[in-house]
């Protein structure tokens, strides 16, 4: 993943702009190249907040849908977390919700992160805290270590994972055992006390 070196090499607004341009150019370029080979799902993203995405973008959503999902499922974004983010589908398992929340951090989808937090756990300042983290972190990898319950017929579930990210060019890891609970039929994130 190239997030580290790129993040290390650029900074500030100008740097972020360069990073974005490189990312989209790279995605477009590799997308065309891969199409010739008959495999169009070979590009990967470099983390960047949704609010800072480029202004260009008739083609952007399509490229994003064809690219590998940031949650490292090896599925295309359009077949993985994309429909959840777009409100076209709901995660059927706790792990799917966990992965889609990681991808939401990746793309800076703050509303999704707030909406998928259990109502009992929503606190004043939560949105700002999520926004701060999404703005500062450049997410580079997700490893799901284990999942228990959290299936279609369950009411609760736990997912243990490690998320790798960079803040100011410094690599960090966050390990968590998340707890999830259904609310009105839909999975919601409760806390990290699993
Ligand atoms: Zn995904």
Q: Order the strands across the largest sheet as they lie in space.
A: 1-2-3-4
- Helix proportion of residues, in percent? 25-40%
pLDDT under 50 segments (min length 5)? Answer: 1-42, 53-59
Rg from Cα: 17 Å
**Major beta sheet, specifics?**
4 strands, antiparallel
The name CATH uses for the topology is: Nuclear Transport Factor 2, Chain: A
> Please, what is the average pLDDT?
78
Bound heterogens, unique: zinc ion
Judged by helices, strands and strand pairing, the structural class is alpha+beta
Helical region count?
A: 7
Name of the CATH architecture = Roll
How many separate structural domains? 1
Sketch the topology as an H/E string, one letter per element: HHHHHHHEEEE
Report the end-to-end length measured between terminal Cα atoms.
Answer: 29 Å
Task: Describe, in plain words, how this protein is organized in 3D.
The protein has 194 residues and is of the alpha+beta class. It has a single domain (3-191), classed as Nuclear Transport Factor 2, Chain: A, CATH 3.10.450.50. It is 39% helix and 23% strand. The protein is built from 7 helices and 4 strands; from the N terminus they run H-H-H-H-H-H-H-E-E-E-E. The protein has helices spanning 3-9, 12-37, 60-66, 82-85, 94-107, 110-115, 126-136; strands at residues 137-149, 156-167, 170-183, 186-191. Strands 1-2-3-4 form a 4-stranded antiparallel beta sheet. Helix 2 (12-37) crosses helix 3. The chain is globular, with a radius of gyration of 17 Å. Mean pLDDT is 78; it is low at 1-42 and 53-59. The structure holds zinc ion. The site of zinc ion has 7 residues, from helix 5.
């Amino acid at each position: 993943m190239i997030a580290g070196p790129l993040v290390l090499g650029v900074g500030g607004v100008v740097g972020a702009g360069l990073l974005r341009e490189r990312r989209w150019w790279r995605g477009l370029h590799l997308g065309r190249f891969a199409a010739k080979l008959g495999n169009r799902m070979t590009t990967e993203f470099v983390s960047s907040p949704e609010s800072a995405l480029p202004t260009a973008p008739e083609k952007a959503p399509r490229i994003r849908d064809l690219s590998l999902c940031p949650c490292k499922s090896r599925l295309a974004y359009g077949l993985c977390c994309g429909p959840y983010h777009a409100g076209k589908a709901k995660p059927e398992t706790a792990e799917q919700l966990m992965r889609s929340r990681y991808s939401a951090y990746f793309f800076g989808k703050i509303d999704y992160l707030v909406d998928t937090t259990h109502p009992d756990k929503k606190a004043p300042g939560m949105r700002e805290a999520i926004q701060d983290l999404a703005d500062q972190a450049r997410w580079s990898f997700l490893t799901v270590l284990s999942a228990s319950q959290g299936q279609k017929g369950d009411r609760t579930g736990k997912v243990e994972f490690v998320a790798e990210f960079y803040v100011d060019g410094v690599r960090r890891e966050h390990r968590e055992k998340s707890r999830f609970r259904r609310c009105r039929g839909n999975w919601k994130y409760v806390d990290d006390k699993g």
